[in-house]
Design goal:
The chain is of the alpha/beta class. It folds into two domains: 204 residues, 3-Layer(aba) Sandwich (Isopropylmalate Dehydrogenase), CATH 3.40.718; 140 residues, Isopropylmalate Dehydrogenase (3-Layer(aba) Sandwich), CATH 3.40.718. It contains twelve helices and twelve strands. The strands form two sheets. Strands 2-1-5-12-11-6-7-10-8-9 form a ten-stranded mixed sheet, with helices on both faces. Helix 9 links the parallel strand 8 and strand 9. Helix 1 crosses helix 12. The longest helix has 23 residues.
Length: 349
């Protein structure tokens, strides 16, 4: 679906299927409807079957047309309808609103397909609608989620999850682990890697030449010199000192999160390195108001995703808000263009 109205070359963007029983395909179509009215430089490829999206579009009262393509060169060739590519069997009927092993397998196949296209330079970026983590386990998959699976498929050893919303860019050192396991999941190496990976991505993908990073403490008051915990002394401070020696960027911390997020909100920092999931995602989701975006750092391609789940409870009613998906598509385009610009100005020998 070319929705470019400028003379610039369109960004080639694939959108994976997501869980077909959830709200992912719904917010995808709603986002495309919204973006088709805007000035964009994106060429869309849906990684699913045309018949599925055609039926969904009709149920939603949208006037989209779709076409299956057999070979990728057909994607960019002029033709009616939004191009869809999915060289696997697809069921004729999908029951919305509940997890199903077949639907989960379709979602996973779509992700793997997107990675192959990205690694083969057939697309510039990919956006991934949500999948159901419990459904993955029921369907026999062992990966904890999108981030780890994308890293595995692309052979990426160092990666991180960044949530973008409003003025915040939050990167948790530990992701989906129980709170009681966070301290044992921290180390100087992991904290330093998160700092340096964020620093690199801010330069290459976000176009920030000299990023300003702030690192959160784990304990109240950042440990209060060891009186409220020693993780700051053992892991976090040494990681900050080591990272400072490896970049010219500004790195401060560890600071107490109960105060630093106000400064981050007012624009003092370009990214916030957090020690665990909710430490950063609570303030981010409070201010993003349904428009937050998940970005996977470290991958050899751009990947963004809405910051919500499959929404089985509202899927049958078609009332999902597409705001996060709209921002995911917009950010994927911007990050892709920034990466290309950075690569041109920093050629590798």
């Amino acid at each position: 679906m070319p929705i470019s109205r400028s003379g610039r070359e369109s960004t080639r963007l694939a959108i994976t299927l997501g869980d077909p029983a959830g709200i992912g395909p719904e917010v995808t179509l709603k986002a495309l409807r919204f973006l088709s009215r805007q000035k964009q430089t994106v060429q869309i490829l849906l990684l699913g079957r045309a018949a599925f999206f055609r039926k969904l579009s009709k149920a939603m009262g949208l006037r989209f047309s779709f076409r299956d393509i057999e070979k990728l060169p057909e994607w960019r060739a002029p033709g009616p309808g939004i191009p869809c590519y999915f060289p696997y069997d697809f069921p004729k009927k999908v029951i919305r609103g509940r997890s199903d092993p077949l639907g989960t397998r379709l979602a996973v196949d779509s992700i793997a397909l997107g990675v192959r296209l990205a690694m083969g330079s057939k697309i510039d970026a990919m956006v991934t609608p949500p999948i159901h983590k419990a459904g993955l386990k029921k369907a026999g998959y062992t990966m904890p989620g999108h981030t780890e699976y994308l890293a595995e498929l692309s052979g990426t050893a160092r990666f991180a999850m960044m949530l973008v919303g409003g003025p915040l860019r939050v990167v948790p050192v530990t992701r989906h682990v129980a709170l009681k396991d966070v301290p044992s999941g921290l180390s100087k190496k992991k904290v330093e890697e998160a700092i340096l990976l964020t620093d690199r991505e801010l330069k290459e993908s976000f176009g920030i030449p000299r990023p300003r990073l702030v690192v959160c403490g784990l304990n109240p008051h950042a440990g209060e010199e060891g009186n409220l915990g020693r993780e700051e002394i053992r892991f976090i401070r040494p990681a900050v000192r080591s990272a400072r020696r490896k970049t010219s960027s500004q790195i401060v911390g560890p600071l107490s999160p109960d105060s630093l997020f106000h400064d981050a909100y007012t624009g003092r920092y370009d990214a916030e390195i957090c020690m665990y999931h909710d430490q950063g995602l609570i303030p981010l989701k409070m201010i993003s108001r349904g428009s937050g975006v998940n970005v996977t750092l470290g991958l050899p391609f751009v990947r963004t995703s809405p910051d919500h789940g499959t929404g089985y409870d509202i899927a049958p009613d078609f009332k999902a808000d597409p705001g996060s998906m709209i921002e995911s598509i917009r950010l994927a385009e911007r990050l892709s263009r920034n990466r290309q610009k950075y690569a041109r100005s920093h050629p590798r020998n």
